[in-house]
Design brief:
Elements (H helix, E strand, L loop, with lengths): L1 E4 L2 E6 L11 E3 L10 E4 L2 E2 L6 E3 L4 E4 L5 E2 L2 E2 L2 E6 L2
Antiparallel strand pairs: 1-2, 2-10, 3-7, 4-5, 4-10, 6-7, 8-9
Length: about 80
């Protein structure tokens, strides 16, 4: 889903990549402008550098893998400006 915020076109989506307690690599459906990526884990905004790193124009790596525990799966959302 794309939204217009302050004149910028931002895309909000669930990135692809396994949420299995091991995988840390995720891919967005479109390329993003470096520095515009915001990653949310279970609704909480993660900190770039401390919690994740941009690894390419459409990929990023989390420092810690999202978890699956007791029937609950972590939810990951990416918001970014489309390149």
């Amino acid at each position: 889903m794309a939204v217009l915020k302050g004149g910028l076109l931002l895309r909000r989506e669930v990135p692809t990549g396994a949420i299995d307690g091991v995988n840390v690599l995720f891919t967005t459906s479109r390329s993003y402008i470096a520095g515009t990526l915001m990653v949310y884990l279970n609704g909480l905004l993660l900190s770039p550098g401390a919690d994740y790193t941009e690894t390419g124009s459409a990929t990023f790596a989390l420092i810690a893998a999202p978890q699956v525990e007791g029937g609950y799966t972590d939810k990951l959302v990416a918001v970014y400006q489309i390149a």
